[in-house]
Design a protein that fits this description.
- There is one protein chain.
- The protein has 18 helices and no strands.
- It is elongated and about 90 Å long.
- By secondary structure, it is an all-alpha fold.
Length: 382
């Protein structure tokens, strides 16, 4: 900054000030950071072709003002920044989307009904410029932010509560297209927890089971040593909904609840529910992998055949696309589950459901492969 004299090198000097402001913000020196961002913006102002850099400095200023609780000043900075982006370029679109999302956070932080409505308007505007393939993180973050705003607004508008919570749930689920268990585990856990809270707010037993499944995923993904506060909140949510369900269904386990959930939803949701634990379990080491798979298969096998068969079809549809060794792990778990059924009639019903599921879910060569493997390992086709 000393080398680049602002009288002769204003753009270079402004760049250094903007970078220094980011460093101070990272250190928690918000007052100093705000001063540097303001100075950088003043130097960029009016310089032809420097609109993106001016927008970046103003966006940074808005962020630090939000952190200081100066929400109106933050929104003013974001207002100035958002019109400067060239949305004909990918970088420009990403910049505008990020600034709109940041302005939405500032509106949300006001905590008023008007602020929440303004936040949602910012997120809706940002949606027009965000592309899942081009900017996946921005897309996921934006959807999650919308879910949070819809949930908060539902508490302020009781007459529209159910509609707003359904909008929240849809947004959280859409964020999970990006925030996957393997690529962004913390964001996945956060979105799952918020999705579970939205289901709890909607009420009803099916939504309670949906919430329990979400909270179980959250607790499983968070590290109680590194993310203790988030883990405790998620575990408290899980315990609350689990205890409520156990009052109505003594002896219920989480696996039984999950299978009952799959039995009560439509085919597309059931298939999506089935995929997630199968992929998760397959990534676990032994013996946990086989234990969890067998427990899931046993809970399915004990259902009436008309309920068990569609779930078995979904499971086979997922397994057949996996590498051969994992397909075999899944089929071995299915065999162990059926052998664990003490009642001969229930076992026969489960075997019959499995046989029908193989015929319905798999093509000719696949059917032969699966049936041959099962029979080679002691399964007797009914």
């Amino acid at each position: 900054a000393a080398i680049f004299d602002p009288r002769f090198d204003p753009v270079e000097h402004a760049r250094v000030l903007n970078a220094a402001g980011s460093a101070h913000r990272g250190l928690g020196n918000r007052i100093k950071a705000a001063q540097l961002f303001e100075q950088a913006a003043e130097l960029f102002e009016g310089k032809e072709g420097r609109e993106p850099e001016l927008a970046a400095a103003l966006n940074n200023l808005g962020l630090v003002r939000t952190e200081q609780g100066q929400l109106e000043a933050a929104i003013e900075a974001f207002d100035r920044a958002v019109v400067l982006f060239d949305t004909t370029t990918p970088d420009g679109r990403r910049g505008k989307v990020a600034t709109l999302a940041n302005r939405g956070q500032a509106h949300y932080a006001m905590g008023t009904e008007e602020g929440l409505e303004a936040a949602l308007a910012d997120y809706e505007e940002a949606k027009t410029d965000v592309d899942l393939e081009e900017a996946p993180y921005h897309y996921g973050h934006l959807q999650h932010s919308m879910g949070v705003a819809f949930s908060a607004l539902a508490n302020r508008k009781p007459d529209e509560r159910d509609r707003l919570l359904e909008e929240a749930a849809a947004a959280f689920k859409e964020s999970l297209v990006v925030f996957t268990r393997s690529t962004m585990p913390y964001q996945f856990a956060l979105a799952k927890h918020n999705l579970g809270l939205a289901y709890m707010g909607l009420g009803g037993e099916v939504n309670a089971r949906r919430a329990l499944a979400c909270f179980e995923d959250t607790v499983g993904m968070l590290d109680p040593r590194l993310q203790s506060d988030s883990w405790r909140q998620a575990y408290a949510s899980l315990e609350r909904v689990e205890n409520d369900l156990k009052v109505r269904h003594p002896g219920m386990t989480r696996t039984i609840s999950f299978v009952d959930l799959m039995a009560s939803v439509k085919a597309d949701e059931r298939y999506a529910l089935m995929r997630e634990p199968l992929f998760h379990y397959m990534a676990l080491p032994e013996p946990q992998r086989s234990q969890f798979l067998t427990e899931l298969d046993l809970a399915m096998a004990k259902l009436p055949p008309e309920k068990a068969k569609p779930m078995m079809e979904d499971e086979l549809t997922v397994l057949i696309e996996l590498p051969k060794d994992r397909l075999q792990v899944g089929l071995q778990a299915r065999l162990r589950a059926h052998r664990a059924i003490a009642d001969d009639e229930v076992c026969l019903a489960a075997d019959t459901a499995l046989d029908l599921a193989i015929g319905n879910a798999l093509g000719g060569p696949q059917r032969i492969l699966v049936r041959d493997y099962l029979e080679d390992h002691g399964w007797i086709r009914p």
